[in-house]
């Protein structure tokens, strides 16, 4: 059985110095930072507002002073060289510090991180924590460097067609505070990337290299997502316009609270490698997986790690996971979302198909996956 190849190219929107990508690797996480401030929360205001230039201006003004440029420096030969740039948004002040959320790929691999605020002031930033799975990171700077902070709106309340604004530094800090307008194209889009994909907000607001980590806001001036990537081109060379993606605010709030408290994210792991059932040709679903035709979604087990909780539960290659605790698993993104709601040490009930036979097992999550 062979896995079908996706025909799209997804790029993280971090601006390199010469127009290249900004995805870097290798920096150790700052995992010993503890903060005593209370967690950030979602606002419950009605997020549906009439679309007009005055509302857009008002929304922009509420957030603009909280948006920053984030510069990634690498050390070479005794000096620091700027490697890439992205964006970020300040969301809280506490204990003499201001906290900023950005993308992990914006700061990953950096030997030094610098922030430029809305007034052009440059300050050094400390990496509080980062998470490669969700592509999020938290920075802190002295609170005097940030004049205002943004609030998060409930991304579960956004609607297709709703007007949104993207704010950031496309192509770098020389274009800081650039705002683009668009609509929500899809509230929950599964993007086939990052080892199985993630569920994101799709928008046609212009997202360019350098916008990574910047906010996607509604007309109430609330952050409903963190801009992360765009659809750039197909493998055939066809260009694609107006397809940007943002990490939903509900997920952002959960992750930044954990990063601010623990400095890293520790998740339960099953000890398996997977592929989405949708990527398996119909002939293989019948001949190799031997699935009933009624099964149309799931995560296909491609490899089971020896000694893992999955092996102990009886899972094997080509089994298809379809539910966790009664919640449907249509793809890897669903599996991760359901699994990551549990902590290490807790128990889950998993439904899966071994050939045409449906099985249900209870699994104690003793393995850890740390970022």
Automatic annotation (TrEMBL):
Its EC number is 3.4.21.107. The keyword Cell membrane does not apply. Residues 268-356 form the PDZ domain. Gene3D superfamilies: 2.30.42.10, Trypsin-like serine proteases (2.40.10.10). Keywords: Hydrolase, Protease, Serine protease. GO terms for molecular function: hydrolase activity. InterPro entries: Chloro_Bact_Ser_Proteases, PDZ, PDZ_sf, Peptidase_S1_PA, Peptidase_S1_PA_chymotrypsin, Peptidase_S1C. It is an enzyme of class 3 (hydrolase). Belongs to the peptidase S1C family. This is S1-C subfamily. It comes from Eupransor demetentiae.
């Amino acid at each position: 059985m062979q896995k079908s190849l996706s025909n799209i190219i997804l790029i993280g929107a971090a601006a390199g110095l010469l127009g290249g990508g900004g995805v870097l690797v290798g920096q150790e996480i700052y995992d010993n930072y503890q903060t005593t401030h209370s967690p950030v929360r979602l606002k419950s205001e009605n997020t549906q507002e009439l679309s007009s230039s005055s509302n857009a201006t008002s929304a922009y003004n509420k957030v603009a002073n909280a948006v920053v440029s984030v510069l990634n420096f690498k050390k070479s030969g005794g000096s620091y060289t700027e490697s890439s740039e992205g964006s970020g948004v300040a969301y809280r002040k506490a204990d003499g510090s201001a906290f900023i959320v950005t993308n992990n790929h914006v700061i990953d691999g950096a030997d030094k991180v610098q922030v430029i605020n809305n007034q052009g002031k440059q300050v050094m930033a400390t990496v509080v924590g980062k998470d490669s799975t969700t592509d999020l990171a938290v920075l802190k700077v002295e609170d005097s460097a940030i004049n205002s902070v943004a609030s998060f709106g409930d991304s579960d309340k956004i609607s297709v067609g709703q007007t949104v604004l993207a704010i950031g530094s496309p192509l770098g800090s020389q274009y800081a505070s650039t705002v683009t307008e668009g609509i929500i194209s899809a509230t929950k889009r599964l993007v086939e990337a990052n080892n199985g994909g993630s569920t994101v907000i799709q928008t046609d607001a212009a997202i360019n290299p350098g916008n990574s980590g910047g906010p996607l806001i509604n007309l109430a001036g609330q952050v409903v997502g963190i801009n992360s990537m765009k659809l750039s081109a197909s493998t055939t060379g066809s260009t694609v316009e107006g397809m940007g993606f943002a990490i939903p605010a509900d997920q952002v709030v959960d992750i930044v609270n954990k990063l601010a408290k623990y400095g890293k994210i520790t998740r339960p792991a099953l000890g398996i490698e997977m592929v989405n059932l949708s990527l398996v040709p119909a002939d293989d679903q019948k001949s190799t997986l031997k699935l009933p035709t009624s099964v149309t979604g799931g995560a296909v087990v491609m490899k089971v790690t020896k000694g893992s909780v999955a092996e102990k539960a009886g899972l094997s290659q080509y089994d298809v996971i379809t539910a966790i605790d009664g919640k449907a698993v249509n793809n890897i993104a669903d599996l991760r979302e359901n699994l990551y709601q549990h902590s290490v040490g807790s128990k889950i009930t998993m439904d899966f198909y071994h050939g045409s036979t449906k099985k249900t097992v209870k699994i104690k999550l003793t393995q850890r996956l740390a970022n």
